[in-house]
């Protein structure tokens, strides 16, 4: 029997990416979970196949949440295979260790999380084969082929993996310890994380600013000089065009009306506004929210689809708004290959057939892992896209065109007119060159129009005016208004606040440290916002994001070390330094361990007394005005004595001493269904239910969702409920009480994501 031919194994992050790579490499023969060619075998993960173990998998004593077992600070957090995607892990692991595999190419997404996905699989599989790294920013065939021509040693990315593992373990340590500690302290289900908590603090601060805001009335006065108008102003006023009340404004209006006026100065200054910079992910999400009404999460998913499936955009999870110099010919090619609808705008971006280059767009020193997000040099037909994909592509294509268009140039004129010793200011603008502002940012939406305050000065077209010109005050107008509270945050403004967090610090050293850092990363910020909504700390009202009472109370009980944007910004900065070999990972993790210990101590001994809403209480899931109903014939899977009950948020047990809780939305984040009475009854009876989106399975302590779409499995995690103590009645579980007198009962049914979270 002939020996199996030697091949290099290519491991992609998702099946769709794997198929694209296989096509370029000529791998056409189908194998189980892979595609095979003469020189390469291409396989794929489905997102994360391996993750960190849960505390109760490290030691059974962690099954019960008590202060006695906190803090949880293992020397090493072992890995485990995610049950829902175990079959694909077995395929990848077997291919890695197969005798015919001579080497491995990591082709997961070119970023921190992609590196972690591959390294966790490689480590769990105990593989020792040599590794190379494919690093590409576009999924076109040409970009993939070029990536393989410039393949790099896997060791070049050891720093990136160290950073990724530190991020993963830091989130585990802070999330596990803080969530357990504060849940025990307040007898309420509380999710705490090193990134989500300071993000929530931004929304809580805005809510309080609005609640504490006291409006002040003011008046503005406008004089009509016949062929132009002017607004009263005084250097002594703050702002300088507001009068303290209507009576004061009317007194001045009466004094100047019908009186002579003279132009005391008329100055014109040539000004220009440079084109906007190219998009990174966060700036795209902000514009898509303002112009198209998309949430940050929706924008990321659409951009990922346009990158992976449509081959229309470059890598979306980028934090750079610049291009390297070697991209200039590629950008010229891209402009010529844009769809026909944009071709009339291309000459303006290529004056004399050349791309105008400036440090605002081309700077190799400001390109790290990936360059700015732009369309690919690939012919695409937007008519084949979904309407939302088409709208987002339009935004990116127009931004590329605008960036290379000329400046917007105008003459700004300021006229000062005086009458009866009162001064009036008039502003005017004459457009010299429309430049990049000649076309709208999008044809699929429009930015919200801001309601103008009474004191906002219009820039009108002015007649020729010079010093000494005479006029008469023909009429006056007094308008009364009041100061406005800060606007509610939306996705766009929250993303901006996260990106710029810490830069208003009084400490200049911290401001320098936070530049380019902020809260979270472009790749994670959308998920953080959705997570805050999922756990009930934030709610959407139309386009606004509002902190709930539960969210406000959580911030009230948190120490500043966990709510400070400066703290999490320093962490992100440290992770970036670890990735570039500029900081020791052990030193970073030691700091995280100290923080985790401090948070447990703070929750137990120093946190203030605050009551949380009833619907967050442990054990029983209660909601105001809603009476839980019993599901007759459904015995509780935990204590075996009570009957399963249903509230509007979760399923519980009729026995008061039983802590069984199963949240209805616990599986939805991973693409699974919301749990309802029909599903629970079927699961308790049959232990496995297959539906249109996948299969639900019930074990002794967990519910698993195995999606039909492999790409959805990366977000799929088991939903854990209480595991009963063998041979011990559930009612007898830990009747000890904490200092506050609360029961240290068994862990209520939390999804894994409620306990390990950013």
Can you give a write-up of this model?
This protein is an alpha+beta fold and 758 residues long. A hairpin with a 2-residue loop joins strand 2 and strand 3 (34-36). The two termini are 53 Å apart. Residues 619-626, 710-716 and 722-758 have low confidence and may be disordered.
Reconstruct the topology from this structure.
Elements lengths: L6 E6 L2 H11 L3 E3 L2 E3 L3 E5 L5 E3 L2 H4 L20 E3 L4 H12 L3 E7 L4 H13 L6 E3 L7 H9 L2 E2 L4 H29 L9 H16 L5 E8 L4 E5 L12 H11 L3 E14 L7 H12 L3 H13 L19 H10 L8 H4 L37 H17 L4 E12 L2 E12 L25 E2 L9 E3 L2 E8 L8 H9 L8 H7 L10 H10 L3 E4 L2 E4 L1 H9 L2 H4 L1 H15 L5 H22 L22 E7 L7 E4 L3 E4 L8 E2 L13 H10 L1 E3 L3 E5 L3 E6 L11 E2 L31 H4 L3
Parallel strand pairs: 1-4, 1-7, 7-8, 14-15
Antiparallel strand pairs: 2-3, 3-4, 5-6, 8-9, 10-11, 10-17, 11-14, 12-13, 12-16, 13-14, 18-19, 20-21, 21-22, 22-23, 24-25, 25-26, 26-27
Helix pairs in contact: 4-6, 6-19, 6-20, 9-10, 9-13, 9-14, 10-13, 10-16
């Amino acid at each position: 029997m002939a020996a199996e031919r030697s091949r290099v194994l290519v491991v992609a992050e998702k099946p769709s990416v794997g198929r694209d790579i296989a096509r370029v490499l000529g791998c056409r023969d189908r194998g189980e979970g892979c595609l095979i060619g003469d020189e390469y075998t291409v396989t794929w993960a489905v997102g994360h196949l391996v993750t960190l173990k849960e505390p109760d998998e490290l030691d059974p004593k962690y099954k019960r949440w008590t202060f006695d077992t906190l803090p949880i600070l293992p020397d090493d957090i072992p890995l485990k295979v995610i049950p829902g995607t175990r079959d694909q892990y077995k395929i990848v692991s077997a291919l890695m260790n197969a005798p015919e595999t001579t080497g491995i190419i990591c082709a997961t997404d070119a970023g921190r999380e992609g590196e972690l996905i591959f390294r966790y699989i490689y480590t769990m599989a105990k593989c020792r084969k040599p590794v190379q790294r494919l690093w590409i920013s576009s999924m076109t065939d040409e970009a993939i082929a070029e990536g393989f021509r410039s393949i790099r040693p896997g060791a070049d990315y050891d720093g990136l993996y160290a950073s990724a593992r530190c991020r993963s373990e830091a989130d585990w340590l802070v999330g596990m310890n803080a969530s357990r500690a504060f849940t025990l302290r307040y007898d309420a289900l509380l999710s705490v994380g090193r990134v989500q908590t300071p993000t929530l603090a931004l929304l809580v601060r805005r809510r309080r600013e609005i609640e504490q805001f006291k409006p002040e009335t003011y008046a503005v006065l406008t004089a009509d000089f016949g062929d132009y108008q002017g607004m009263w102003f005084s250097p002594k006023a703050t702002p300088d065009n507001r009068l303290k009340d209507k009576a004061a404004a009317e007194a001045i209006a009466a004094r100047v009306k019908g009186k002579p006026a003279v132009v005391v100065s008329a100055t014109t200054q040539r000004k220009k506004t440079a084109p906007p910079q190219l998009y990174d992910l966060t700036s795209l999400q902000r514009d898509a929210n303002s112009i198209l009404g998309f949430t940050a999460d929706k924008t990321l998913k659409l951009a990922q689809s346009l990158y992976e499936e449509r081959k229309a955009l470059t890598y979306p999870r980028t934090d750079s708004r610049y291009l390297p110099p070697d991209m200039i010919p590629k950008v010229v090619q891209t402009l010529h290959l844009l769809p026909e609808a944009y071709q009339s705008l291309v000459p303006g971006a290529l004056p004399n057939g050349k791309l105008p280059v400036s440090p605002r767009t081309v700077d190799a020193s400001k390109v790290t892992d990936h360059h700015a997000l732009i369309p690919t040099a690939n012919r695409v037909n937007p008519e084949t896209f979904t309407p939302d994909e088409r709208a987002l592509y339009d935004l990116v294509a127009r931004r590329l065109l605008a960036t290379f268009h000329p400046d917007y140039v105008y003459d700004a004129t300021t006229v000062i007119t005086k009458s009866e010793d009162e001064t009036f200011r008039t502003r005017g603008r004459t457009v010299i060159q429309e430049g990049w502002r000649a076309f709208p940012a999008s044809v699929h939406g429009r930015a919200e129009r801001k309601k103008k305050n009474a004191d906002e000065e219009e820039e009108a077209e002015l007649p020729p005016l010079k010093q000494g010109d005479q006029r008469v005050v023909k009429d006056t107008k007094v308008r009364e208004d009041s100061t406005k509270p800060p606007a509610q945050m939306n996705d766009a403004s929250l993303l901006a606040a996260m990106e710029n967090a810490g830069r208003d610090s009084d400490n200049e050293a911290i401001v320098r440290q936070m530049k380019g850092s902020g809260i979270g990363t472009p790749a994670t910020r959308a998920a953080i916002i959705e997570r805050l909504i999922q756990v009930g700390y934030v709610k959407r009202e139309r386009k606004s994001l509002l902190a709930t009472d539960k969210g406000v109370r959580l911030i009230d009980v948190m120490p500043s070390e966990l709510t400070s944007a400066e703290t999490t910004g320093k962490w992100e900065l440290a992770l970036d330094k670890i990735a570039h070999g500029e900081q020791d990972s052990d030193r970073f993790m030691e700091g995280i361990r100290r923080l985790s210990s401090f948070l447990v101590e703070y929750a137990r001994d120093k946190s203030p007394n605050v009551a949380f809403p009833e619907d967050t209480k442990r054990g029983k899931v209660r909601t105001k005005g809603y009476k839980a109903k019993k599901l007759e014939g459904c015995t509780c899977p935990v204590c075996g004595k009570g009957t399963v009950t249903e509230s509007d948020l979760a399923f519980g047990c009729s026995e008061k001493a039983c802590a069984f809780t199963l949240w209805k939305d616990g599986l939805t984040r991973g693409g699974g269904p919301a749990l309802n009475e029909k599903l629970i009854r079927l699961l308790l009876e049959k232990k496995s239910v297959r539906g249109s989106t996948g299969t639900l399975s019930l074990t002794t302590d967990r519910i698993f969702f195995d999606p039909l779409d492999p790409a959805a499995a990366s977000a799929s995690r088991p939903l854990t409920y209480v595991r009963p103590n063998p041979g011990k009645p559930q009612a007898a579980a830990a009747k000890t009480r904490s200092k506050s007198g609360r029961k240290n009962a068994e862990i209520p049914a939390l999804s894994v994501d409620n306990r390990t979270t950013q």
